[in-house]
Amino acid sequence: MEMIGKRRDEPLGFRLKDLAQIYAMVGNHDEALKTLDRLLSVPSHFSVGFLKIDPTWNSLRDHPGFLALLQKYELAASAN
């Protein structure tokens, strides 16, 4: 993941989303959550609302880290 996003003009969102999906599919939930956290922290089309409805993330739905991530970025969005 260190190679992703080194250039300012790189379309970071799509690559991070793909990487997070791969981590989730192979059961590496901790890395998936770290990647989602990074993705949600940068400007992109990706959002908490999308995470809540996209079936891609079903394997993470009950993970405490996923629930905490949703809450973290819901609070951040409501503060703006």
Features:
single chain; 80 residues; mainly alpha; 4 helices; 0% strand; disordered N terminus
What can you tell me about this protein's structure?
This protein has 4 helices and no strands. With 80 residues, it is mainly alpha-helical. The protein has one domain (12-79).
What's the arrangement of secondary structure elements?
Elements: H1 12-25, H2 29-41, H3 48-53, H4 64-79
Helix pairs in contact: 1-2, 2-4
Question: In a few lines, what is going on in this structure?
Answer:
By secondary structure, the chain is mainly α. Helices cover 61% and strands 0% of the residues.
Average pLDDT metric = 85
Total number of helical segments? 4
The low-pLDDT segments are 1-10
Global structural class: mainly alpha
**Could you tell me how far the N terminus lies from the C terminus, measured between alpha carbons in angstroms?**
29 Å
Got a strand count?
A: 0
Percent strand: under 5%
SSE sequence, one letter per element: HHHH
The gross shape turns out to be globular
Radius of gyration, Cα only, in angstroms?
A: 12 Å
Count of spatially separate domains? 1
